């Protein structure tokens, strides 16, 4: 399986705090409106669409897409995170179909079943990101959209995403990221093309530590999002 057991154990240990907006997952809560806006804008809206969220964790993005009217299936390999995600549905009163499986396994089971596929903050945590992207191509319908977000690999990204976020500002637990697994936009673009998806665009995401404000822009030097479309 395309799973890093150390990464899985790391996030499973923190699973109980997924929905605590002041916990280690605060950055995910803070950027979620931006991710949702990006996905909605570039998929012509989510209402009524079949959506798959790969690497859903505790379901922060999954639930927000369901609240927009999407029929959401969400997958992860952390049983602990999925337990928290399912439990939170009782509080949110939305419907999400959570499943413990890999993207590759679901691609064999449900090819071309989804209008939108999202894979956010996940590619830098698996051994073979290209395999995930190929599975996304299989899972999305012709003309459907696939969304990714990850972290660039360069000295600035190391300074901001690891030294800054994990050690200085302590926005994330130390060891959350492995710099060697960061992904340059050129590498992501190559994998997207090799998966027979058409790249539609890249967008950067920045953070101001003084105002504690995140925003989308054209700077893809650290955190960035990308979206692609499966040809008809």
TrEMBL record:
Q: Which domain of life is it from?
A: Bacteria
Q: Which reaction does it catalyse?
A: a 3-(all-trans-polyprenyl)benzene-1,2-diol + S-adenosyl-L-methionine = a 2-methoxy-6-(all-trans-polyprenyl)phenol + S-adenosyl-L-homocysteine + H(+); a 3-demethylubiquinol + S-adenosyl-L-methionine = a ubiquinol + S-adenosyl-L-homocysteine + H(+)
The molecular function terms of the Gene Ontology recorded here are: 2-polyprenyl-6-hydroxyphenol methylase activity; 3-demethylubiquinol 3-O-methyltransferase activity; polyprenyldihydroxybenzoate methyltransferase activity
Q: Which UniProt keywords apply?
A: Methyltransferase, S-adenosyl-L-methionine, Transferase, Ubiquinone, Ubiquinone biosynthesis
Q: Which residues bind S-adenosyl-L-methionine?
A: 35, 55, 76, 120
Which pathway does the database say it acts in? Cofactor biosynthesis; ubiquinone biosynthesis
Q: Which NCBIfam families match?
A: UbiG
> Member of which family?
Belongs to the methyltransferase superfamily. UbiG/COQ3 family.
Q: What does this protein do?
A: O-methyltransferase that catalyzes the 2 O-methylation steps in the ubiquinone biosynthetic pathway.
Q: What is this protein called?
A: Ubiquinone biosynthesis O-methyltransferase
Q: Which organism is it from?
A: Beggiatoa alba B18LD
């Amino acid at each position: 399986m395309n799973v890093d057991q150390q990464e899985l154990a790391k996030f499973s240990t923190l699973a109980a705090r997924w929905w605590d907006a002041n916990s280690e997952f605060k950055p995910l809560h803070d950027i979620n409106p931006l991710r949702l806006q990006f996905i909605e804008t570039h998929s012509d809206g989510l209402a009524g669409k079949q959506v798959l969220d790969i690497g859903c964790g505790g379901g922060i993005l999954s639930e927000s897409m369901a609240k927009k009217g999407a029929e959401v299936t969400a997958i992860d390999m952390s049983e602990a995170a999925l337990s928290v995600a399912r439990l939170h549905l009782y509080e949110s009163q939305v419907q999400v179909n959570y499943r413990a499986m890999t993207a590759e396994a679901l691609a064999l089971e449900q090819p071309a079943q989804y209008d939108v596929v999202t894979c956010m903050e996940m590619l830098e945590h698996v051994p073979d990101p290209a395999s995930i992207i190929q599975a996304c191509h299989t899972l999305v319908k012709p003309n459907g959209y696939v969304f990714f977000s990850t972290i660039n690999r360069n000295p600035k990204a190391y300074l901001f995403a690891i030294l800054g976020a994990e050690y200085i500002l302590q926005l994330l637990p130390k060891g959350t990221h492995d710099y060697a697994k960061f992904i340059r936009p050129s590498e992501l673009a190559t994998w997207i093309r090799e998966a027979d998806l058409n790249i539609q665009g890249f967008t950067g995401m920045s953070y101001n530590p003084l105002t504690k404000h995140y925003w989308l822009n054209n700077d893809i030097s650290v955190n960035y999002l990308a979206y692609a479309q499966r040809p008809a």
